[in-house]
Amino acid sequence: MQGVEYYGDYSIKNRTSRELALSHERVNLLKGLKQTVKCYEDIEDKHCTDWFNSKAESGELTDGIFASVPECHDPAFFRFTGGEARTVFYDLGSVCAVSGFRIGVLRQNGAGIFQPSRVWLFLSDDGENWQTAGSVVGFETWGKDEVTRLSAEFSPTAARYAKFTFNVPIHVWIDQIELFGCTEPSGAAKIVPDRRDEEDFPRRFASTAQLGAKDVMLAYMCRQDIPPISKEMLLPYVGYIEDGNVKDTMFDSFLFLPHVWYLYDYSSGYGRKKPLKKEDWQYYMDVQFSKGANLDALDKAAEEIGAALGKPDLRLTVFLSILYPVAEVKDFGVINGKNLDFSNTGDRFTALEWLIDEQYRRFNANNYKHLSLLGFYWFTEEISYLDAPLMELLRRTTDHVRDDLGLITTWIPYYHACGYNDWRELGFDVGCYQPNYAFNQSVPDKRLFEAAKTAKLFGMCIELEMGGTNDWNIERMKKYYAAGAITGYMKDAAHMYYQGSMPGEFYRAYESKDPYLHSVYKDTYDFIKGTFDPSRVAFDGEEMEKNDA
Questions:
Q1: How many Cβ atoms sit within 10 Å of the Cβ of residue 142?
Q2: Residue 238 is inside which H or E element, if any?
Q3: Is cis: bond before 227, omega within 30 of 0?
Q4: Which residues are within 8 A (CB) of 278 and not within 5 positions of it... i.e. 6 or more apart?
Q5: Which of 25, 258, 351, 419 shows the greatest Cβ crowding within 10 Å of its Cβ?
């Protein structure tokens, strides 16, 4: 069922006729109002109930009754489930001087009720043109069960209409939304429209033109127990090779990044970011720029493939990585004559700026004949909003890459990772979404279609993932390709590819004499060229909808 069908008409103009007495007293302008609700993606039929999704006309959000316990059965909560995101609209009845808001959101881990990464408030005087008034961040996916109350204050703005927008990856339970201001609007600033709904929900994939590359292979390195990436490993990635003959080009871009075990500690279960210091970051860079390996090997592979195809000017684009500055590091090392302390946001940025600039300098100093540096990748797959300085740090870092170096930044959050739909506000130029379908046989096929819809809704590209070389891994990889052909991300989106450490699963498929495993290599080529035939792949489940994302 479509979310808009469940909630009904979400237009807000002339939804109320309440009369407001003019007053300079600051009050909750939403007290007792009903809302209209807009949903951005389908709600599953099983969730189209009052328990999972409160009816739009329900009064829990504005009745002044706060939850007494952080527990989903508390009747104070208004409930949202699925549908990716909501906008909740209010008509104040007349123009008021709006100057702040507060929202209370439940986190109950055992019930799968999590908090959105950010809530935005937009104001309007006509219900059509909207100004960004403010937002609240600081929600975190994991932590103790609680109702978090966050608020924002801003200069009085003359508005009649208000809308709150937030993501709903699973369940979001809210007990109250309060909007503060005075019914007397004199002296309040006029609305200056700055926001369109399509900016946040463009409903189109991030394209090759936006990213600057079409098919980006993740090239993991910097792990001492595996050999460096050689030219021989890279040849069947740069060129499509059949029976020893180079037939065509393959991947047009490569993202070099350290292996996850270099950055995370898995000794106690879920990975914790390692408190790496300057010598660790330096080692990563030294490995990346090793003579005869990694970037150097890619340059030579491009030269060899280009020569075989009669394309001596063949060029590939490259992304390099930005490592995470763990705040607990007190003695990172000396840069610009100062030993950096990461409890200081300025020191964290100094380290990041050094890492980026040093990679930029070394890349240019090597004068690669066939490689162009396109941008930098932020190496974490989620955003910790509990790390409050991180928001400023990300903006300063992405601004430096974009404004000072003329390059772009990209980020690849996992499925429903904290901040996944906030990538644009975090400062990244392109976000790429992981379906995380490859690694667990219990994940249903519909995940691929849901992830495609989400990526398209938020204007992201797609990561394709191969988790191994046994039969079920091969089958899943083919389903990634088929889903791309069906939903449109095969041709309309840019792509990034995960397949473990180099030489990788695609290389093993290329070398394999097993026809089924080897077929993945040909399938990958067909997908890159936009010719993969999805009719050869059967999806499971009667509920599978093969409509466009």
A1: 13
A2: helix 231-238
A3: no
A4: 332, 333, 334, 335, 340, 351
A5: 419
Tens digits of per-residue pLDDT, 409-444?
999 999 988 889 889 989 999 999 999 999 999 999
pTM of the predicted model, to two decimals? 0.89
> Strand 245-249 and strand 131-137: pairing?
unpaired
HEC secondary structure over 418-448: CCHHHCCCCCCCEEEECCCCCCCCCCCCHHH
Written as one letter, the residue type at 379 is F
- Close Cβ partners of 144 (under 8 Å, ≥ 6 residues apart): 107
Instruction: Check residue 546 and give its pLDDT.
Output: 46
Of 287, 213, 221, nearest to 252 by C-alpha is: 213
CA dihedral of 342, 343, 345, 350, whole degrees rounded to 10: -20
Rounded CA gap, 48 and 56, in Å? 12
CATH architecture of 3-199: Sandwich (2.60)
Q: Where are the domains of the chain?
A: 3-199, 208-536
Residues in Cβ contact with 5 at an 8 Å cutoff, skipping those fewer than 6 apart: none
CA 379/CA 377 separation, integer angstroms: 6
Tell me how far apart the terminal alpha carbons of the chain are, to the nearest angstrom: 15
**Average pLDDT for the chain:** 92
How far is residue 23 from each of residues 27, 30, 315, 330, 343, measured CA to CA in Å? 9, 15, 67, 53, 46
Q: Mark 213-248 as b/e (b = at least 16 C-beta within 10 Å).
A: bbbbbbbbbbbeeeebbbbebbbbbbbbbeeeebee
Token look-up 């590819």 returns: 497
Q: How many helices (H) and strands (E) does the chain have?
A: 14, 22
Does domain 208-536 fall into CATH 3.65.10.10? no
